[in-house]
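Feature request disguised as a bug: please show the residue count (191) next to Transcriptional regulator, TetR family in the output. Example input:
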Amino acid sequence: MLNVPTTKVDPRILRTKKLLVESFQQVSREKKMSQITVKDITERATVNRATFYAHFTDKYDILDYTLSVTILKDLNDALTISEIVNASVISNLFITIAQYMIEVQDSCKMNSETFCNQAHKRIHNELEDIFTIMLRNSYPQQDIDVLASSASFLTAGLCGLVRHWLDTSQLSADDFIDKNLPFLLHHITHL
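Example output, currently without the count:
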């Protein structure tokens, strides 16, 4: 797993945020994002609006936080096997992201487009950071700008491949990546 610094957070804050997130998720299954209000979320959570605003700026902030927390956990879980970029890591990341995007679509049918677009942005940002860290670990002597560009390339490719799979493939995520990754890796490294 990647070593990400953590700070101690008051358990009450964590519980309140969790309650707000769960309430937001419940409301988002019932209403379109454009119809969701802070009042809907706070009533479901049985907290006041001031409590909501102590944690989030608006409904889009809680959406971003919700996506961030869930995808970060999934991505970190997928990376426990290695801290270097290799075929296994790319395959695990692809499967993790694909499964996550399916979960987002299934759990938020009324808001799947809004949620999927936000999830894609969040995944892209997190994945680029993860690839940058992994490349730094693998190539500590390499110029940081080259590593950042390489991380951006890997991120765009992996996210694009997930979108392509979602839009066009009938294969499972596992079968799709098993079929395509060897060709991609072989031909990219032998250009």
